[in-house]
From TrEMBL, chain A:
<feature type="transmembrane region" description="Helical">
    <location>
        <begin position="78"/>
        <end position="99"/>
    </location>
</feature>
<dbReference type="GO" id="GO:0006865">
    <property type="term" value="P:amino acid transport"/>
</dbReference>
<keyword id="KW-0472">Membrane</keyword>
<keyword id="KW-0812">Transmembrane</keyword>
<feature type="transmembrane region" description="Helical">
    <location>
        <begin position="294"/>
        <end position="314"/>
    </location>
</feature>
<keyword id="KW-0029">Amino-acid transport</keyword>
<dbReference type="InterPro" id="IPR052157">
    <property type="entry name" value="BCAA_transport_permease"/>
</dbReference>
From TrEMBL, chain B:
<feature type="domain" description="ABC transporter">
    <location>
        <begin position="21"/>
        <end position="269"/>
    </location>
</feature>
<dbReference type="GO" id="GO:0005886">
    <property type="term" value="C:plasma membrane"/>
</dbReference>
<dbReference type="GO" id="GO:0005524">
    <property type="term" value="F:ATP binding"/>
</dbReference>
<keyword id="KW-0067">ATP-binding</keyword>
<dbReference type="InterPro" id="IPR003439">
    <property type="entry name" value="ABC_transporter-like_ATP-bd"/>
</dbReference>
<dbReference type="Pfam" id="PF00005">
    <property type="entry name" value="ABC_tran"/>
</dbReference>
<dbReference type="InterPro" id="IPR027417">
    <property type="entry name" value="P-loop_NTPase"/>
</dbReference>
From TrEMBL, chain C:
<dbReference type="InterPro" id="IPR043428">
    <property type="entry name" value="LivM-like"/>
</dbReference>
<dbReference type="InterPro" id="IPR001851">
    <property type="entry name" value="ABC_transp_permease"/>
</dbReference>
<keyword id="KW-1003">Cell membrane</keyword>
<keyword id="KW-1133">Transmembrane helix</keyword>
<feature type="transmembrane region" description="Helical">
    <location>
        <begin position="316"/>
        <end position="335"/>
    </location>
</feature>
<feature type="transmembrane region" description="Helical">
    <location>
        <begin position="101"/>
        <end position="123"/>
    </location>
</feature>
<feature type="transmembrane region" description="Helical">
    <location>
        <begin position="50"/>
        <end position="69"/>
    </location>
</feature>
């Protein structure tokens, strides 16, 4: 087999796994959009915020330590304890639920019935706000996130492929774990949405707010729940990305990649988010592999967006989105 | 039926001219749903032509075909004697067809004056550069357009709300502003989609008066959809009746009133 | 008692159409112009110009540009940073390729080039709307920055990958390069801003502006009453790009002096300008000024108070700025979607009646 093809296969597999992570972030967007019509730009920052919180809790950092030190001239940084990963994840989840309640209570309850674009801009504001809060709470230096996930090259795949092609594929264990978790999470969400009472209520709200209200669904509760679930998805994504490349500001930018994923998949479709994520993941890795060297590299910065843009011109509703019918 | 080319004078002394617009065998489908099935009718110069029918009969779709928003799958539209090729709505508007909407479609963020001024769009020729420096045609046309618009404002008695943002107006006034915007275009055909929906008796009387005055003073041809039978029969010269996408009657109000199909449609005879 | 329309009669439509129909507003406007052109240049020094006046003037131009596209025509763009980069690199290439041509021409041409690029990325707006388009403009942002970073022709193959503004003069007075005088750069930008603002005002009060607003408020109805959506949207992208490009050119040539696409024109720039128009007021020229002033002054203010007076670390002040800006955005969207400009209008309406409100 020619070398180029083998390298290409490796790139393809890696792209697939990157795509799973994109899909994971995109899923958070789809959930909120379906239930409330809000296009949540802050999803990426929520991932960053949750990862920051997780690290902070695990390391026993004092929240707002910097601020307190600056105001009172003290020198407190850590409580001096370390919280085990599982407990810390649970606590972080609690923080994300709290965040969901606050977001609903202080922001979106006051914006019910506004145009989608206003809501979108409000989430940009929310993103800035949350980023500032995260940084002030936990400090903005790059942090390492160690929750005990396996990392490094998967030797089994390396050796097997070496046996086949005489070239070992480099596949990171973390990516494999992430893929597994993402598949699990997606299945859980689908089951939740299809078979539980809350899930049905959520879909009802997504279909028609008024009708859902009239049969006794509490909109407020559903929205808080959706934001909590989105917070949970953000936490998972935050852990994955954080373990991969450290918890830092760029985390929120990586999450921006979920936007073209959504444009490909359609904003309302969970399978769309997954397939869109895979297309973007594979597409940008392959493009960088094939065309990148010819044009100076780093095409991953823009490939996803341009692909989505071109795609949208031909199919404005995305792969799986519902067809838009215009009326007067 | 009347001969297409000759004109006649109505009882109240208005002259109705020849055919200005003719719809021939129009069929419009949305996917599998047939909204309009093989409908033909014409509109004469200077007349008030009503389209009536029960809910879902395809009246609004018909109006949307006339204003170019929907392109029918089959059939032709003749305008001023010429076959109209399929075109975008803004091109239709430029040919002198203006309309109002069933659910008011005003520009909520703009003032009443600006809303009505948009109606003067295709009476302005100034290019971007002239407008940027507010010189030449841009300045002259703005004043000329304003004069026309002020006449319409006087005509419809909305002087006091000139500079009010449209979003703040009550429903009845919004309907009037919408009519003003359509009139500002000085159209040859004016399409009114349920101009009196949701109005009380006084507002309906006002609106009827305006419609008659427009037709009388400017000689504007009017095609309107309306549910209030009393109003339709009083206002219109000829009526098209639609039901389930088909034409079931066409003629003067008296003819239509005595048409058995029409009576069946309105009294609810079972369809086969 | 001060702000009155009564007795200010107009006898022609032209008088009623002018930019400041109320006499009091007109006088205040002349007073501001007088201050800006005849008094401030004698008072300012390098610190004031670099910390406040230049960023304010230049961001005002960018905000006016974005406001035309987003506030008037309703097309949200997250690509402002990328378009400013086009203006900056366009200006740089022109300045180095034609050193004898006036910098003023270069700045205008850079605006023109940006207008064209903006139109290219605006073409999809015919098919896609709302936040779909907003995300699509991200494509412009990332692609353009990548382009200017990776293709050496754009930065004349310089080793650092940066572009540096050569020294250029107007009427023999230096306006770019390291040896400029504070008042010269200030006046240069002020003149351009004034002209831009007048053009923007003329466009938005006339037929063109009405077409844009019609598309913004209800695009389908706009098309049915005769607005050509293609022309309206494309012209908004072109005009907006022109202003944003000029802002980018000035930002690089006059303000920064040296620039690198990723640092100077990243996505944060796009958001900054977007926030300016949200806080200042969507669909208002005055709002563009107000928003630019607010977001230029806020960090300076925070830095002086928190770092200078209270002795906090700078990063803390920067993070607090994030919180404040984010919070303000949300607050304005909830309470007053038309921003500072609307607050100003409300204040004026109150003033008209004050002190006898009945």
């Amino acid at each position: 087999m020619p070398d180029q093809l083998i390298f290409g296969m490796e790139v393809f597999l890696n792209g697939l796994m990157a795509g799973v992570l994109y899909a994971l972030v995109a899923l958070g967007f789809v959930l909120i959009y379906k239930a409330s019509g809000i296009f949540n730009y802050a999803q990426g920052v929520m991932a960053l915020f949750s990862a920051l919180t997780l690290v902070g809790i695990m390391e026993g950092q004092v929240p707002f330590g910097h601020l307190i030190n600056a105001i009172f001239g003290t020198e407190i940084h850590h409580f001096g304890w370390h919280v085990p990963a599982v407990l810390a994840i649970l606590l972080t989840m609690g923080v994300m639920v709290l965040l969901a309640v606050c977001v609903q209570k202080f922001v979106f309850r006051h914006l019910v019935g506004q145009e989608p674009i206003i809501l979108f801009m409000a989430t940009i504001g929310l993103a800035y706000f949350l980023e500032g809060v995260g940084d002030i709470m936990w400090g903005s230096e790059i942090k390492k996130l160690e929750v005990g996930l396996p990392q490094g090259i998967n030797t089994l795949i390396d050796e097997t492929t070496y046996g086949w092609f005489g070239y070992g594929f480099f596949i990171d264990n973390l990516d494999l774990v992430a893929t597994a978790i993402a598949i699990l999470l997606v299945s859980a969400l689908v089951i939740f949405a299809q078979y539980t009472k809350q899930g049905r209520a959520m879909r009802a709200v997504a279909d028609d707010h008024q009708a859902a209200l009239s049969v006794g669904v509490s909109l407020n509760f559903i929205w808080i729940m959706v934001w909590s679930v989105a917070g949970f998805v953000a936490l998972v994504a935050g852990i994955m990305w954080g373990a991969k490349s450290g918890v830092q500001f760029s985390l929120s930018l990586i999450a921006l990649k979920a936007l073209p994923v959504l444009m490909l998949g359609g904003f309302t479709s969970i399978p769309g988010a997954i397939i869109g994520g895979l297309i973007i993941g594979v597409g940008e890795k392959m493009f960088e592999f094939a065309v990148g060297p010819l044009v100076g590299g780093a095409t991953e910065n823009w490939f996803a967006y341009v692909l989505a843009l071109i795609f949208l011109v031909f199919r404005p509703q995305g792969l799986f989105g519902e067809k838009i019918i215009e009326r007067v | 039926m009347l001969d297409a080319s000759d004109s006649y004078v109505t009882e109240d002394g208005r002259t109705i001219g020849g055919v200005v617009m003719e719809m021939k065998n129009i069929t419009l489908r949305f996917g599998g749903v047939v909204a309009i099935k093989d409908i033909s009718f014409d509109i004469r110069q200077g007349e008030i032509r009503a389209i009536i029918g029960p809910n879902g009969a395809g009246k609004s779709s018909m109006l949307n075909v006339i204003s170019g928003f929907y392109n029918p799958q089959e059939g032709q539209v003749f305008y001023k004697g010429k076959l109209r090729p399929s075109m975008r709505p803004y091109q239709v508007a430029r040919q002198g067809i203006a309309r109002t909407f069933q659910n008011i479609a005003l520009f909520e963020g703009m003032t009443v004056l600006d809303n009505i001024m948009t109606g003067r769009l295709h009476h302005s020729k100034a290019n971007l550069f002239e407008q940027a420096f507010w010189k030449g045609r841009a300045e002259r046309e703005e004043v000329a357009n304003r004069e026309v618009v002020e006449k319409i404002i006087d005509f419809l008695e909305i002087q006091t709300i000139r500079k009010t943002p449209v979003g703040r107006l009550p429903y009845g006034l919004k309907k009037r502003v919408e009519l003003a915007r359509a009139l500002a275009a000085e159209p040859s055909i004016l399409l009114l989609d349920e101009p009196m929906a949701g109005m009380n008796v006084e507002e309906k009387e006002d609106m009827s008066r305006f419609i008659l005055d427009v037709n009388d003073e400017f000689g504007t041809t009017i095609a309107l959809i309306e549910h209030d039978m009393g109003v339709v029969m009083d206002l219109s010269d000829r009526v098209v009746v639609m039901d389930y996408g088909k034409k079931i009657g066409d003629g003067t109000p008296d003819e239509v009133r005595n048409n058995q199909d029409v009576i069946d449609a309105y009294l609810g005879v079972a369809h086969d | 008692m001060f702000y009155r329309e009564a007795g200010d009669f107009k006898t022609s439509y032209a008088e009623d159409n002018q930019t400041f129909p109320v006499k009091f507003d007109r006088y205040r406007y002349y007073a501001v112009l007088f201050m800006g052109f005849a008094i401030i240049p004698f008072l300012i020094n390098d610190y004031w110009v670099n910390a406040i006046f230049l960023p304010f003037l230049i961001y005002s131009i960018a905000a006016i540009g974005l406001n035309i596209l987003t506030g008037y025509c309703g097309q949200v763009s997250l690509g402002t940073g990328g378009f400013m980069a086009v203006g900056a690199y366009g200006c740089y290439k022109l300045m180095t390729a034609f050193p004898d041509v006036s910098i003023l021409i270069h700045v205008l041409l850079a605006g023109g080039i940006t207008g064209i690029v903006c139109v290219v990325f605006g073409l999809p707006s015919l098919r896609i709307k709302g936040f779909y388009l907003a995300v699509a403009t991200l494509a412009a942002q990332f692609f353009l920055v990548w382009l200017f970073n990776r293709v050496p022709w754009f930065y004349n193959y310089s080793a650092s990958g940066q572009i540096n503004a050569p020294e250029r003069t107007i009427f023999g007075i230096e306006v770019t390069g390291p040896n400029t005088e504070a008042w010269a750069t200030y006046l240069f930008c002020l003149v351009i801003l004034t002209v831009c603002a007048l053009i923007a005002r003329n466009l938005t009060r006339g037929m063109q502006g009405r077409q844009w607003m019609a598309i913004r408020d209800m695009d389908i109805a706009a098309e049915i009453i005769g607005v050509n959506p293609l022309k309206a949207k494309i012209s908004a992208f072109a005009v907006s790009g022109f202003f944003v490009g000029i802002a980018g050119a000035l930002f690089f040539a006059v303000y920064l002096g040296a620039a690198e696409a990723g640092d100077s024109f990243g996505i944060t720039k796009s958001f900054l300008v977007l926030f300016m128009i949200i806080i200042g007021g969507l669909g208002s020229i005055f709002g563009s000024f107000a928003g630019a002033a607010f977001l230029v002054l806020l960090p300076v203010f925070l830095k002086n108070v928190l770092v200078g007076t209270l002795g906090w670390p700078t990063d803390l002040a920067a993070h607090l700025e994030f919180i404040i800006v984010g919070g303000l955005i949300i607050m304005f969207l909830i309470l007053e979607p038309h921003g500072l400009a609307q607050l100003w209008r409300v204040a004026k309406e109150k003033l008209r009646l004050w002190p006898f409100p009945h």
